[in-house]
Design goal:
The chain is an all-alpha fold.
Amino acid sequence: MSIGFLRGGARPPIEVIVAFIDDNRDEFGVEPIVRALKGTAARIAVSSYYAYKKRQPSARARRDQARLVVIQDVYEANYSCYGVPKMWKAINRQYADQFGPVTPAAQWSG
């Protein structure tokens, strides 16, 4: 029997909820927005909103950000025309000593 733990799509990610509140907080304020979201799947406590805002990025998030910079640099260095397989090979060829094997984390078109 499944209780739905970690089921996809049941609730928007906290980043999306916080971004929504940030976009509208000047007009409505944080607490009224949180009250309006209370009956939806996007509910969040005011304390959770402020705790998220104060939280430092995790080590994984910082590492991923550094990798995305490398991915963008390699993509632009190859005239923005490499697809995922060629990008994966180019990054692993040039940066494997710095990052270890790199898994594509961004969407590329090409």
